[in-house]
């Protein structure tokens, strides 16, 4: 859903394991593109509903597999550089995101990247809590730092 300012409403997911490492996922067909799971909010979904749908679609996890620890207070915004923007009418120029901090409560064997017809990711791993902002594509770095900083006290980081 793209708003009047051409920003797409979106959710981001930071999934912790028992040692507070975060799940880092590799985008399909691009060996260098790693990121947190994220996705658009459809129609009249709430951010939390979209987050659980994306969790299932991208990681194969059910709501019973995780504990929701926090949600960002505000929407975090980033612009997509023109060279990465889609050219069709109505395409977004950026994302407005609500971020969720989750803890995996089930065994990691429940993570499956291939539950939907067109999987977004083809690999994943656990990384240090502060690793992602320095390793995600440049235009997402500030939003990653903002979300991780907001959640850091809950994680003890």
CATH topology, by name, is: Nucleoside Triphosphate Pyrophosphohydrolase
Give helix % range.
10-25%
Overall average pLDDT: 92
Q: Which descriptor suits the 3D outline?
A: globular
CATH homologous superfamily label? Nucleoside Triphosphate Pyrophosphohydrolase
CATH class: Alpha Beta
Strand residue percentage: 25-35%
Main beta-sheet strand count, sense and barrel state = 5 strands, mixed
Helix count equals: 3
**What is the N-to-C succession of helices and strands?**
EEEEHEEEEHH
Radius of gyration, whole Å: 15 Å
| First-last Cα distance | 34 Å
DSSP strand tally: 8
Describe the structure.
The model has no long low-confidence stretch (mean pLDDT 92). The chain contains three helices and eight strands, in the order ββββαββββαα. It has a single domain (7-155), classed as Nucleoside Triphosphate Pyrophosphohydrolase, CATH 3.90.79. It has helices at 47-59, 132-135, 141-155; strands at residues 7-16, 22-27, 34-35, 38-40, 66-71, 76-79, 94-104, 121-127. A hairpin with a 6-residue loop joins β2 (22-27) and β3. The chain is of the alpha+beta class.
